[in-house]
Amino acid sequence: MNRTLRTAALLALILTTTATAGVADAATPTKAPDRIVTSALRGSGRMEYPVTTEDIRLTVDAHAAYTSGPTFPTKSWGAFRLSHKIGTGKQAKVYWGDFTVDCLRTGGPTAVVTGTLTRTSPGHPWRTTLPEHARMGVSFYIAPKGAGPSRIGLAAPSPKGQPTLTKCMASATDARVIAGGYTLRDRVG
C-alpha cells in the first residue's frame, strides 16, 4: 500500500475513534454532587448515679455532616464537658473535663459522640492517669415526650498504656437522665 493511502487510513481511524469517544462522553450524564445532611445534639443533663452524694452532669454541643452514602459522618465538630461533683457543702470537689468532638453518629432517637480530652479542672486525677488527648465516648437515647426518661452511657477514656477508645464508639445507654435534657436533630438536609 502506498504511503499516502496508509496515512489517509490512519487519519480516518483516528477521527472515527475520537468522534465515537466524544459521543459517549456527551451521552454519559454528569454525576450530581452528593447531598449533604447534618445532625446536631445539644443540651445538658444530670445522669443517674448510684452514689447519692455525687452529681455527674454532661453538657454537649455536637454537630456532624453526612453525604448521601456513608454510615459515618464525613465531618464532626463541637464540644462536650463531663463534670463530677463529689461530696456536699464546702467539702465538695468538682472535677471536669472538656472534650473536642471527633465524631457524632446519629440514627433515629439515638446518638454516639466521641471526643478527645483538651482540658481538665486543676488537680483532676485524669491529669496523671490518662494520656494526652485521651478519647471518651458517650451514647444517648433521647426519649420521645411521654415515653419515659432519656438515657446516657459513658465509655471512659483508657488509662495510660491501654488501647485508645475507637472513634465513634460508646457503651450502652445504661443511666437515666434525671435532670435537664437533650435535643437531637437527626440527618436533616
Question: Would you mind describing this structure in some detail?
Answer:
Keywords: Signal. This is Repetin. Helices cover 15% and strands 47% of the residues. By secondary structure, the chain is of the alpha+beta class. It contains 2 helices and 8 strands. The radius of gyration is 27 Å and the shape is globular. It has an 8-stranded antiparallel beta barrel with strand order 1-2-3-4-5-6-7-8. A hairpin with an 8-residue loop joins strand 2 and strand 3 (75-86).
Q: What topology emerges from the helices and strands here?
A:
Elements: H1 3-27, E1 37-47, E2 54-66, E3 75-86, E4 93-107, E5 110-120, H2 126-129, E6 135-141, E7 151-155, E8 175-188
Antiparallel strand pairs: 1-2, 1-8, 2-3, 3-4, 4-5, 5-6, 6-7, 7-8
